[in-house]
Amino acid sequence: MTPSPLEHNATPAPFSKGTSLHRQLFLVLREEISRGVFGDTGALPKEEALCERFGVSRITVRRALADLAALGLVERRHGRGTFVRQDRVPVARPNPSLGLIDSLRQTASGTDVQVLLVERAEAPADVAAMLQLAAGEKAVHALRLRSVSGMPVMLSDAWVPAQLGKQVTMASLRKHALYEILLAQGVKFGRVIQEISADISDPTRSRLLQTEVGVPLLKVVRVIHDPKGRPIQFITVSMTPERSRILMDFAGDAVNTLSAGYFMHDIRLPRQ
């Protein structure tokens, strides 16, 4: 394996307190598997090399490899070593070039949906502010889980102003995606604001996404407006990075514009 510029093989990797060594090693190797670090052969380094690289015992290495095997990411071949399973080799990135409606259509057609909840409720303060709801005003809340071949990949938590959500029911969401229901009512999509960040999996999301409590999740918050700038949908999507990724596509002349996104840093400096 060719080490990345961020690796320092001469110095054992520093580990964090509070998490077992084999678990931290497991997370590092799982991330490298997802990036295709181990090349065409998929051969992981020998146990001795992993011990030296990370400064851990062979027992720790073996426990991490066993956890990877239990997850179906690697297979142990007697007398040869540990190899990434071929069905886990990263695939080439597709050509996106999709508009908002096309991307929503692709998501809907490429996944199976389970409608977990549809209700009329008072939205949380941040959602109410984004949807410009009056104090105490209720909205339609829909919680859905999307899966691929029985494996959960997306948990979507959507809010729609009540006047736009009259046709949003458990039955309608089992047959149609939310965007299709809105379009059928004559709603048109305009400006979209999207925020991508990371979150920690709580017990509820861990159970639904079939992952462990406390693992990092990809979090996408999207506010969709109509052509007049009125907010029509607030949605939060949670995904586990071991199964999902976010692909963005924009024109070269938009790289240095806000349409390509920009970085925000929430740093609170102490008062002088």
Side by side, the strands of the main sheet go 3-4-5-8-7-6
Q: Judging from the principal axes of the Cα atoms, what is the shape? A: elongated
Mean pLDDT: 83
Secondary-structure element order, N to C: HHHEEHEHEEHHEHEE
Backbone structural class: alpha+beta
- Multimerization state: single chain
Q: Describe the sheet with the most strands.
A: 6 strands, antiparallel
Distance between the termini: 49 Å
Q: What is the helix fraction of residues, given as a range?
A: 25-40%
Estimated radius of gyration = 22 Å
Beta-strand content bin: 25-35%
Stretches where pLDDT is under 50 for at least 5 consecutive residues are 1-11
The number of helical runs is: 8
Instruction: Count the beta strands.
Output: 8
Description of the molecule:
- With 272 residues, this protein is of the alpha+beta class.
- It has eight helices and eight strands, in the order H-H-H-E-E-H-E-H-E-E-H-H-E-H-E-E.
- The strands form two sheets. The chain has a six-stranded antiparallel β-sheet.
- Strand 7 (216-225) and strand 8 (231-239) form a beta hairpin.
- Helix 1 packs across helix 3 and helix 2 (47-54) packs across helix 3 (58-70).
- 21% of the residues are buried.
- Mean pLDDT is 83; it is low at 1-11.
